[in-house]
From TrEMBL:
NCBIfam families: sortase_fam. It comes from the Bacteria. CDD domains: Sortase_E. InterPro entries: Sortase, Sortase_dom-sf, Sortase_E. The active site is at H94, C160. Signal peptide: none annotated. GO terms for molecular function: hydrolase activity. Gene3D superfamilies: Sortase. Pfam families: Sortase. It comes from Asanoa ferruginea. Keywords: Hydrolase. This is LPXTG-site transpeptidase (Sortase) family protein.
């Protein structure tokens, strides 16, 4: 958790970026590199697709949350669960146009979809809150409850708050609702 705290604090020094056209090109390139099988991702490599229907946006997610890794893509906190696993699949993204700019529009019940290899995981937003950059408990296996043992799959999205500043973090939490194979995929045996 100390490493996660350092990452949350490191985001405090990262200024908002406004490179939507470059971001789109980078995302297309990352999307083309997404694996079709489930593998442990290498730092900096794209490994999943994050889709938020309410925002009309989707992104390739890379492994890692260092500034270089999340410059043009949301990044997975490596010490957290992978998509669909029991525990907390936590993802950080800059509060910039084309990334998590409108994350504050999500409300309880909104869907967040994660495609990982041949599987798709549908999460439902359970809530959001604003925390200090040092609030690493949001990355715990049970978000916000570091002493509890996880028994379900959760998703946490983090970004800077407010827009145009980075002194706090907006945290959106979601619970796994459904897991299925992507259309045309054969179930794993």
């Amino acid at each position: 958790m100390v490493g996660a705290g350092l990452v949350l604090l490191a985001l405090a020094g990262a200024p908002p970026t406004w490179r939507a056209p470059d971001l789109a090109a980078t995302q297309r390139a990352l999307d083309a590199r997404l694996p079709t099988t489930v593998t442990r991702p290498a730092i900096g490599a794209p490994f999943a697709r994050l889709v938020i229907p309410k925002l009309g946006l989707h992104w390739a997610v890379v492994e890692g949350v260092d500034p270089a890794e999340i410059a043009d893509a949301p990044g997975h906190y490596p010490q957290t669960a992978l998509p669909g696993q029991v525990g907390n699949f936590a993802v950080a993204g800059h509060r910039s146009k084309g990334l998590f700019w409108d994350l504050d529009r999500l409300a309880p019940g909104d869907e967040v979809i994660v495609e990982y290899g041949p599987r798709t995981f549908t999460y439902a937003v359970t809530g959001s809150r604003v925390v200090a950059p040092t609030a690493v408990e949001v990355l715990a296996p049970v978000p916000g409850s570091p002493r509890e043992r996880a028994t379900a799959a959760a998703l946490t999205l983090t970004t800077c708050e407010p827009k145009w500043d980075n002194d706090r973090r907006l945290v959106v939490t979601a619970a796994l609702q459904d897991a299925a194979n992507l259309p045309g995929e054969v179930p794993n045996t």
